[in-house]
Write a structure and sequence with these properties.
Elements (H helix, E strand, L loop, with lengths): L9 E8 L6 H9 L17 H6 L2 H17 L7 E5 L5 H12 L6 H7 L3 H10 L5 E4 L5 H15 L5 E7 L17 E8 L8 E7 L7 E3 L6 H11 L3 E6 L2 E8 L3
Parallel strand pairs: 2-3, 2-4
Antiparallel strand pairs: 1-5, 4-5, 6-9, 7-8, 8-9
């Protein structure tokens, strides 16, 4: 069931990054046959001034890498898109480092304060892309990507003329937090450039909601177990529908074929 008030959107372009998966050909192979993703690696941020890039944590580099790549591949000006950054945890590694320094009465690094804020990635994007468009940072638990998609669709309903860049990003959780959260914990970033209207002949994606999921925990009809990657796998796979069961809610995407 398509939710009332949630307009269908078109995915104009996508980009993704994870260690060992730096281009679309590798991603398409992974999405067809998902495997293990290593935890170590760094994204290319050659488009960022070195002095600014050195201040960024890996979390923020991942977010900007996919945001930039998505706009570049779509031929969309980086300064003309609105931005939604969706992350369940934000840069928890930096936050844990700050908390440890506080508990040990150690020196707190100014760069760590900068990177620990949940909307830091959006701020960096504004600086790097010289982007003064609206931006939002979303945290919604395990369904953070889903809420980010919903928020981006709402922005397109309010102003359908300007595209919205949705970036979902997570990094590895440090101890002791890594043992407190269920589900897979890997470093990744996914960017989707969403528009109110797509190219002629292209399908549009409608978001709807089902009834209670009927149990605790999360699931989907994908096999990766990470909402942003399950959505991307569905999108490139060309299936008609995708359902994610997260907590007590069912998130349902439907591909609306052009007539």
């Amino acid at each position: 069931m398509v939710a009332a008030g949630v307009p269908p959107v078109s995915v104009r372009e996508w980009a993704a990054w994870a260690p060992g998966l730096s281009d679309k050909s590798k991603w398409l192979g992974f999405l067809k046959s998902p495997g293990e993703i290593p935890l170590d690696g760094a994204p290319d941020v050659g488009f960022i001034a070195p002095m600014l890039g050195r201040r960024m944590s890996r979390f923020n580099r991942m977010a900007l890498n996919t945001a930039y790549s998505c706009c570049r591949d779509a031929g969309a000006p980086c300064d003309a898109v609105r931005l939604v950054v969706a992350s369940r945890h934000g840069d928890m590694a930096v936050m844990a480092r700050l908390l440890k320094a506080l508990s040990e009465k150690d020196t707190l690094l100014p760069a760590d304060f900068t990177n620990s804020v949940h909307h830091t990635a959006a701020g960096y994007w504004g600086l790097v892309a010289k982007n003064r468009q609206a931006s939002r940072s979303i945290a919604g638990g395990e369904a953070s990507f889903c809420y980010g998609f919903l928020d981006a669709a709402g922005m397109l309903r309010h102003d359908p003329a300007r595209p919205v860049l949705l970036v979902a990003v997570e990094d590895v959780l440090p101890e002791p937090f890594n043992g407190l959260v269920g589900g897979r914990c890997i470093p990744y970033s996914v960017a989707l450039l969403l528009e109110a209207e797509g190219e002629p002949g292209s399908g549009r994606v409608a978001l709807g909601f089902g009834g209670p999921a009927g149990g605790d925990g999360a699931g989907s009809d994908g096999t990766i177990g990470i909402p942003a990657l399950d959505f991307l796998r569905w999108h490139v796979g060309g299936q008609d529908a995708l359902e994610m069961r997260i907590g007590q809610r069912r998130w349902q995407w439907t591909l609306l074929h052009p007539r």
